[in-house]
Write the structure tokens for this entry.
Amino acid sequence: METDERMPGASGGSERERRGGLSRGTLLRRTGLGMATLFVAGAGALGYRAYDQGVLEVGEGPAYDPWTDWERHSGLVRLVAAATLAPSPHNAQAWLFRLAPNRIDLFADRSRGTGATDPFKREMYIGLGAALENLLRAAQANGYATTVTLMPDDRESAHAARIELARSTPRVSALYQQIPRRHTNRYAYVQGKEVPGAALAAMGALGTPDTKGARVFWFTRKAQRAEVGELLVAATEALIADRDQSRSDYEWFRQDWDEIQRRRDGITVDAAGLSDLTAALAKLLPAQSRTATDDAWLTATRDRQTKTAAAYAIVAVRDASNNRQRLAGGRLLERIHLWTAAHGLALQHMNQLTERADRELELGITPRFGDALRTLVPSGWQALSAFRSGYPTHTPHKSPRRPVQAVIT
Amino acid sequence: VTPAPPPGPRVHRPFGRVAARAALIGAALGLAAGLIELAVGPRIRDWVGNKQDTTRLGLATIVLASVALAAALTLWRRPEAAAPRRFALAVGLLVPGLICFTTVGRLWYLPGALLLLAGLAVLADLRTERSEVSEALGPHWLAVLTVVLAGFYVFLGATALGLAGALGILGGLVILALVGARARVPRALAAALLVAATLPFAALTWWSVATPLIALLLLSLGLAAILRPAATAGLTRGSLPRPVHRARGGGDGSRHR
């Protein structure tokens, strides 16, 4: 009776099951459940990978804490914390600070150079200039009057600046408030929306006696943008074709979440300007090879960044090999970047042209991009750094930052 | 410790004691690995898989090693436990054994290997009792899978940010409760709750690939587990809830008498 109440194939089993075989229905059900189990196991593995790669934690963790806790520091350390939020080539953050009671000395950390992409340390000093600008804005906001000496020791080229500090009335500038909001935006920009002439003029007027000798030249007309865009794409192709430059570039590309949180530097997938879905896939999949990364960079430059740039600009100085002028140019560049953040504009540093020009000089090869840069800026000026600007389509993600303790000697 | 009396006819289990011993040693070493990671992880990063968040992963290792230790102790104390229970114990050894390779790096190599060997040995001993395991687990397998998926939701919710993370944790907990109480919740309400608990987190993090996929599985397997609990019973013998009405006759011609 007990057996009779059960369904064949479910309890006592069909005649075939009783003989040791499986009915088709049972086999199908078991196969279905087996597949479901495999799917669940796969989903679990994917979920763990998502956790391990920080897919749901974009912009979080200790590597990103400096963006939120920089104002929690007190005294001169707070000024250094502001300085560390400045942009730097490949986000290498090649800076060191030495603190004294009324003085901060800024040094280049030569161990954090970007190799063949910056053979003459041009970009390193531009980055130091940007950090100096942030530091001085913070000093002003925190009640310090400053006296700055660039390259104070001719025998020590790593000593970029000495900042003497004296107490004064705090003055919080609009640009200072943008320090934690400024991020390099590598996304596409709004197409067809030009940067107003008044904005270009305002940015052009950001130069002060502190940055004299540095000037910004804009390229806003369609033909100009096309010319600069084509040059940038060609320079990117040349960069990735140059094995040493490609390797130097790849060394600073961070794809592993733990590595990002540990090293707190470099270019990350999150900050690469990819769509959220593409970025998540890039993080879930195994790390990209150097070649694949190069290809992705070229594609982004050609199809996204140069195609949607509303304006290009070149910051130029009289002598681009002079570290004082590089520092001044870096200060002006950071000032412009902070200004764009305050006015709803996006900005991305695009240094392929200058990187190739320096490489040509280093290798003694035909100065294709060096010549091109010379035609872009007026006679008597030398291109120092370039960027694109426009209206953002996405809010950029933060880049990792080293803590102040790591940069104070 | 006196072993429990055997539940039925004695089955040959060649690996029983060895597996239990290996599991105990592996779990104890695993617990130690978790404690070491928690205590000095940042100073021995090479040994803990170069993980940044050694606190969270150390705690996770301790929890998982504790699960393995509980399974190992049960295996040691009750070598003659019923087959379904020993299957669960094998899972309790294998899952931590596998996961912790990613939480504590090199420190897990020895405990992980011991736990995996022990778990596989227990499974090997179970090969003659497959039908018993199948009978016990079959009717609940979809519910088990749903619980596992809900666990993933809670886990990912805990790593996500802000509202999305909170909705992930809440959704996962609701689903866990729903599976536990599925016999007492009206089906329409259960279905609505499952959908409401699943969709928000997946929608807010659709780009993450992982959460939409888990949500898809949660909805398909969860609905089957909650709405048609009897459907899975057909998998195994003697597992259907009774009475089963087939008044109009099934395709196989059987009738309820």
User: Anything to note?
Assistant: Chain B touches chain A through 51 residues (CB under 8 Å). The radius of gyration of chain B is 21 Å. DSSP finds nine helices and no strands in chain B. Chain B has a mean pLDDT of 82.
